[in-house]
Amino acid sequence: MYYKATIRVTLRPSVLDPAGVAVRSGLQQLGYTGVSNVRIGKYIELELEATDDAEARRQIDRLCDQMLANPVIEVYKFEIAALEAAAR
Amino acid sequence: MYYKATIRVTLRPSVLDPAGVAVRSGLQQLGYTGVSNVRIGKYIELELEATDDAEARRQIDRLCDQMLANPVIEVYKFEIAALEAAAR
């Protein structure tokens, strides 16, 4: 079966986010003074082939730990959805 | 009222994504041969102050168009949730 996965990788709350601070400062200069706590992460979409839901989740857990996220400073969340054969 | 917004900025489907191609190639070298169509985007969380839901959505639409996304090559989606005063 084919699955579509959407993965969000974000810095751990305890880790400083200089890019987020820069974006917040830029937004405030543009007049968005009510904006705060900006955090920037990665958003990854991918498709994968797996025998079932559980196997797809296992694969995504492993590939996030190995490549997409740095577990020391980042955490990830993901959702999967089965793809209809016709939709591919 | 305070709102938390989560924003996903992705390349338009017609735009090539060299970073996604590189990640796919890296994953395949790690043995994840069933992975395809990898697309990399940005995931942004922020808090903002607005009078109501509609005003919050208007502000986020504007700041995405002005700063967070490049509308020529990117699209964005977002969700907002009202923050309890106690949760801030």
From TrEMBL, chains A, B:
Reactions the enzyme catalyzes: N(2)-formyl-N(1)-(5-phospho-beta-D-ribosyl)glycinamide + L-glutamine + ATP + H2O = 2-formamido-N(1)-(5-O-phospho-beta-D-ribosyl)acetamidine + L-glutamate + ADP + phosphate + H(+)
EC number: 6.3.5.3
Domain of life: Bacteria
Single biological process term from Gene Ontology: 'de novo' IMP biosynthetic process
InterPro entries assigned to the protein according to its UniProt record, in alphabetical order: PurS, PurS-like_sf
One annotated GO molecular function: ATP binding
Cell location: Cytoplasm
UniProt KW keywords: ATP-binding, Cytoplasm, Ligase, Nucleotide-binding, Purine biosynthesis
Family matches, as Pfam families: PurS
GO CC list: cytoplasm
Pathway connected to this protein: Purine metabolism; IMP biosynthesis via de novo pathway; 5-amino-1-(5-phospho-D-ribosyl)imidazole from N(2)-formyl-N(1)-(5-phospho-D-ribosyl)glycinamide: step 1/2
UniProt record similarity statement: Belongs to the PurS family.
Its job: Part of the phosphoribosylformylglycinamidine synthase complex involved in the purines biosynthetic pathway. Catalyzes the ATP-dependent conversion of formylglycinamide ribonucleotide (FGAR) and glutamine to yield formylglycinamidine ribonucleotide (FGAM) and glutamate. The FGAM synthase complex is composed of three subunits. PurQ produces an ammonia molecule by converting glutamine to glutamate. PurL transfers the ammonia molecule to FGAR to form FGAM in an ATP-dependent manner.
Summary of subunit composition and partner proteins: Part of the FGAM synthase complex composed of 1 PurL, 1 PurQ and 2 PurS subunits.
Listed name of the protein: Phosphoribosylformylglycinamidine synthase subunit PurS
Lineage start: Bacteria, Bacillati, Cyanobacteriota, Cyanophyceae, Gloeobacterales
